[in-house]
Amino acid sequence: MGIEVVVEGLTKSFGGQNIWQDVTLTLPAGEVSVMLGPSGTGKTVFLKSLVGLLRPEHGRVLVDGVDMVGGRERDVYEVRKLFGLMFQDGALFGSMSLFDNVAFPLREHTRRKESEIRRIVMERMDMVGLVGSEGKLPGEISGGMRKRAGLARALVLDPQIVLCDEPDSGLDPVRTAYLSQLLIDLNAQIDATMLIVTHNLDIAATVPDNMGMLFLRRLVAFGPREVLLTSEEPVVAQFLGGRREGPIGMSEEKDAAALAREQDRASAPRPDGPRLLAPQLEPSPGLPPRQGALRRRERVLGLLDTLPGAAREAVLRGRTAPVRAPGPDPSPAPGHPPAADGVRP
Ligand SMILES: Nc1ncnc2c1ncn2[C@@H]1O[C@H](COP(=O)(O)OP(=O)(O)OP(=O)(O)O)[C@@H](O)[C@H]1O
Fold it and tell me: Which UniProt keywords apply (predicted)?
């Protein structure tokens, strides 16, 4: 089972530039979380801080009893092996075959025999649907295949925590829909704690158990998906609605005059009406139920009294109207509609 990641009061700056401050959240064990935020708000910096590749100046990141910020280098190095990292471009070595790319962490960090390495690599290639392409070079395959190869490589060391940085960047909507399903399927199979950084609203609406958002140097929100998806917080609602109206401007924050002009127009009816929750994806047929989703159900029911009214209703309703924002159907499994809450009965 994945392990939880506890972030407490994290603050990171580069020189005089503060990226974010006092970020506190917990990634629950084995659950899938998404971090949203406009470009440049420090999402990648956050991922790198979790794994100890960047060291924030304040706060702690506790993983398996080790503080990835202030812990001893040796301990941080050991705990880093619990992580699987998938970077935006797949970060593959261009001169190596997909097989060698995926095998790389095993050859680098373990003393396994080649026969064993082959078995593990082919298993992971199978999980991401790349069997048959293992001899190809990264330059010979599509962007979507490179992403999946990057994901296979992130999985070879049996990670308990998987961090994915914009796994959808550069993918068309159909490939993104397949990727969403793949992320849920992987979670069902390996029960790892997952954090996905994305701008993609379909992924945000259908994949995670929990969502967070960074904006203007702070964590605006983090919690169960129902909380953010029903949030009236202007920044969250604007971002999830994909609208120009709201506090987020082209270069991060709108000036006061622009906001005031918008508020004058605010009496006009909103084009998108009330927001309803899209159903969360469930694992493809034949896969086990997600243990993280089962644990989450208990956890969120325990939190019910602390949730805002709309989120509480959404949790209790469980099955909300299957209304989605315009876009492709994210479920690639024909004839197999997803459960509303991602949890099998
Ligand atoms: N090593 C570094 N040294 C100095 N500044 C950095 C470094 N890494 C990131 N930054 C700065 O931190 C800020 C946040 O960058 P980051 O890549 O985390 O944003 P992001 O939210 O992931 O953006 P996007 O959604 O566009 O990928 C940027 O202003 C960037 O220039």
Answer: ATP-binding, Nucleotide-binding, Transport
Q: Which atom of ligand 1 is nearest to the CA of 45?
A: 18
CA contacts within 13 A on the Cβ side of 8: 12
What's the pLDDT score for residue 172?
A: 82
> Any idea where the domains of the chain sit in the sequence?
5-226
State the average pLDDT for the chain: 83
pLDDT digits (tens, 9 = 90+) for 159-176: 999 999 988 887 788 878
122 touches 146 (CB < 8 A): no
Report CA(40)–ligand 1 centroid distance (Å): 5
Q: For the structural domain made of 5-226, what CATH number should be given?
A: 3.40.50.300
The beta strand positions in 172-251, using DSSP E, are: 193-197, 210-215, 218-224, 248-249
Of 187, 214, 244, 222, nearest to 44 by C-alpha is: 214
DSSP element (H, E) containing 345: none
Between the CA of 27 and the centroid of ligand 1 the distance, in Å, is 22
Dist. CA 138 → ligand 1 center (Å): 26
Its pTM stands at 0.83
- From the alpha carbon of 37, which atom of ligand 1 is closest? 21
- Quick: pLDDT tens for 50-91: 999 899 999 999 999 999 999 999 999 999 989 999 887 667
Phi, psi torsion values for 343, nearest 5 degrees: -115, 130
The rounded Å distance from CA 56 to ligand 1 centre is 13
Residue having the nearest C-alpha atom to atom 3 of ligand 1: 14
Place of tokens 């399927």: 185
